[in-house]
Amino acid sequence: MTPTVQTAPVQKSFWRALALSLTIAVLNFGLWAWLNRPTPIADWNGQVGGFAFSAFQRYQDPTKDIYPSEAELAGDIRLMAQYTRRIRTYASLESPQIPRLARLYDMKVMAGAWLDRRADHNDRELEALVTLSRKYDNIERAIVGNESVLRGDVTVEQLIGYLDRARAQLDIPVSTAEPFFVWERNPELARHVDFITVHLLPYWERIPRKDAIGFTLGQYQQLKRLFPDKPVVIGEIGWPSNGDRKEYAQPTLANEAQFLREWFNLAARENIDYYVMEAFDQPWKEANEGRAGAYWGVLNANRQPKFAFTGPVVEDTTWPWKAAAASLLALLPMFWFARHFMRFRTAGLWFFLVLIQLGGTLLVWSATLPYDFYLSPLDWTMLTLLLPAQVAIILVLLINGFEFTEVIWRPRWLRHFGLLTPQPGDPQPFVSIHLACYNEPPEMVILTLDSLAALDYENFEVLVIDNNTRNPEVWKPLEAYCEKHGPRFRFFHLEPWPGFKAGALNYGLTVTDPRAEIIAVVDADYEVRRDWLRALTGYFRDPKVAVVQCPQAHRDWEHNAFRRMCNWEYDGFFRIGMHHRNERNAIIQHGTMTMVRKDMLVDTGSWSEWTICEDAELGLRLMHAGYDLVYVDEAIGKGLTPADFKAYKSQRYRWAFGAMQIMKARWNWMVSADSPLSRARSSTS
Fold it and tell me: What is the domain range of residue 634?
């Protein structure tokens, strides 16, 4: 019968842990599915009106004089011929093969001459446009300048001069391409073109995608009203699939697909002449146009379609394997946690399992997100270097989440220590209270000494050890105060003396009353409660107990915003973190309101003067020696918070620096499998 009784709860917890883990993994998959649910969009089964064609491949860049080969141009034109019979170019000096290659696929070209601030370059561009237009009969229209006035490269008067020169030499219609407001503000331009070429890109106007079609159509119709005798051609229209949000305009793949498919249907009904911005993503444009500049293509930079023209559109077509990877990555850690911490309340189990799943999802998302962008080798190098930091952040999130879970959703503490109520006749071990100070305001220290003098305890002494305070006006009042209180209070002025606070405390051990069994340490700014010693020394009846520790607490913080925040931050550690550590006999010993068994302190090496966090190092050393540390969450003394941020920063620097000193010196203790510290970490139930 015994084996059945023992294994039934184990089997039950196994299956419950598995069920919880699988449920959250399935919910995670469902969340991915919901976020990537298909968007129903009107189908488009016809041809695209035309494509704006920038011919550069993934790592090519005209600003670096890296241009496509003829074979690459031919491949791009062959791809575009599957969608349209018209393309638009922007320059005639670069890639002059385009009209010839386009003619092989029976494609018409609206050829461009690129104008900038260089007059000689502009003359050569215009000459090249004229030459190509005369040579290839598939060039049906010419565009002289592309947003040249918008950029400020040429004035309206200069642009008119170039337009007049082109019209005088060409037998095909000539125009220039500018956004709506340039045409609206400069109507004289219309007298020097054969048709109006306008760029209508509602994303740059910060228009929400749902309003973008109506906005675009409105601007198009307004231009037709402004210039009724001129045909209007939309030279660029589109929506980016990625990049930065422009107020209400969100660049996503689904938004690009929906905008373009709606536009194709509208343009067919209204008989609108247009060129989509653009055929292929152009990563090089990101440097000048921002992140969205790289993602206007109907096809990506690898020449793959970004979305279909029929059927629902899914924002991320690879989401199923990402969701599966995230669920599988988190499944084993979730099962392990649920299996080992089944004692937590159900809400706590759910909370932390969801946190684990979130960590797995964040890792998968972070690892795959870069593939949605056109990153340079330097970008990839930096991301690789930052990946360990990302993992560390997730681990910190899980560690802090576990502490919250254990504190909030525990059914009970496995190790709980409260204040003791001494009974008549209980022995009172002799306690030597050590107060080390350096250049402290005497009135503050006297307040602490007054509270010590009022202790409800018989067997104790107070050693005030002043360490290297040079001004006698600071330490002499303390010496006089101790003399006034008789032999129980002894004052020592050390100058010069090495070792900082640890050095002063070690000196205190040499002059401690031989009867002392316990060393208690209190900071110079603490007021202690009368029952401090009486309510806690009883724990030392257990011979394995080396340390009894109370939380640091604070006073006089209520009326100062900075000190209020400091107090709340400290409370988070002592009300959560220290409980979590106490469950594993692994508390961090802090140097005030602490009591240490004298013989264990001395036998393990006294206070370490090589680190500025001698208190934490002593606690680690005692745990390594196999002793027990007790944490009693009762504010029996209150000190002062740092007065300002500079003091707070100095304190935190000291703690962080000391912790690194300890880790460097005691690393082998923390990683050794045979260490009591490792056993404390693994004691989770």
Answer: 431-682
Identity of the residue numbered 399: I
Q: Are residues 237 and 344 in the same domain?
A: no
The CATH number given to whatever domain includes residue 272 is 3.20.20.80
**What pTM does this model have?**
0.78
Considering the domain architecture, whether residues 445 and 346 belong to the same structural domain is answered as no
Closest CA relative to residue 633, chosen from 526, 568, 548, 519: 548
Mean pLDDT of the residues in the chain: 92
- pLDDT tens figures, 182-221: 999 999 999 999 999 999 999 999 999 999 999 999 999 9
Q: How far apart are the first and last CA of the chain?
A: 25
Cα(103)–Cα(316) distance, integer angstroms? 36
How is residue 449 written in tokens?
Answer: 């000494």
* For residues 163-185, average pLDDT: 97
Q: Which residue carries 């010419």 as its tokens?
A: 142
Average pLDDT over every residue of 13-17: 89
What dihedral angle (degrees, nearest 10) is formed by the CA atoms of 124, 130, 132, 134? Answer: -150
How does residue 676 score in pLDDT terms, banded at 50, 70 and 90? low
Q: Is the dihedral of CA 232, 235, 241, 244 positive or negative?
A: negative
Q: Domains in the chain: how many in total?
A: 3
Q: Is 130 in the same domain as 258? A: yes
Separation CA 601–CA 672 (nearest Å): 23
Backbone angles phi, psi at 401, to 5 degrees: -65, -40
Confidence at 673, pLDDT banded by 50, 70, 90 = low
Cα–Cα distance measured from residue 625 to residue 679, given in angstroms and rounded to the nearest whole number: 12
β partners of residue 246: 249
Distance (Å, whole) CA 202 – CA 230: 23
Question: Hey, which residues does 199 pair with through a beta bridge?
Answer: 179, 236
- Contact in structure between 305 and 279 (CB atoms under 8 Å): no
